[in-house]
Amino acid sequence: MKTLWTPVALLALTMLAPQVSANEVDLTFDSDLTVLDRKISYNLSLRLAERGPTRIGTEALLDLTNLQSTLPGIVNGHALVDLCTLRAEIRGIDLAAQGGNFVFSGTLAADMYSCARDGLTATDRGPLVLSQDMTLTVTAGVRVEDNCVTLNLADMAIDLTGAVQLTDAQKKASEKAGDLLVAVVERLMANHPVCPKLPPELASLEPRYDTGGTTEIGEGGLGLSLRGSTDVSTGTILDILQVLQDRGVLPPKP
């Protein structure tokens, strides 16, 4: 006889969250991301649906609209690049969801210097070659890997703001600065994945996400959607029941 653990798990979870339909449950949690040593909260919503006798389909929505409104104030004035050839300071940034991508646009105050060779630090700078504001527009897609979301650089446009005619040395410096900015943005995206976590008491659900993408919340609001599934075992059921007992929804063990 096949054990139908999935309906049992969903039935137990309805005691913790609203039931959408006979075989679907919604759960909502608060989580956070850390940017420049500052925590920014976001909302994580899960929809769990029966997919088989021992499997629950999982859809996750990360509402990043608070990050969208908070991040500009945190990074404004921060140096995106501070190396021998270039110091680029963020002077303003906007984030939006457009056409399935994240779009970051902003202004940089850029100082470009001569440098004896690549790989040197800011203390090794030579004379200033060009001081110029830049507009930066970054378009990024999404990759889901190891239960985390990583942004992938799809396109990046860099323009000098109100630039006068440049000398050959200034053109070379601005081209080199553009290449460096692309490399820095790619590294930032690769090194800062978003890995949604459930509260410790529900960690045993262990959803495995295999697909995902950006989603627009309201008008231009940032969101991430993930899809996957959860294997339901006896241990999972027992953990859920323990949570219900801890919260007083069910009586304690005799």
Describe what this molecule looks like in 3D.
Keywords: Signal. Residues 1-22 form the signal peptide. This protein is of the alpha+beta class and 254 residues long. It folds into two domains: 5-62 and 197-214 and 223-246, no CATH class; 67-191, Nuclear Transport Factor 2, Chain: A, CATH 3.10.450. Helix content is 22%, strand content 48%. It has four helices and eleven strands. The strands form two sheets. Strands 1-2-3-4-11-10 form a six-stranded antiparallel beta sheet. The protein has a five-stranded antiparallel beta sheet with strand order 5-6-7-8-9. A hairpin with a 3-residue loop joins strand 10 and strand 11. The model is unreliable at 1-5 (pLDDT under 50).
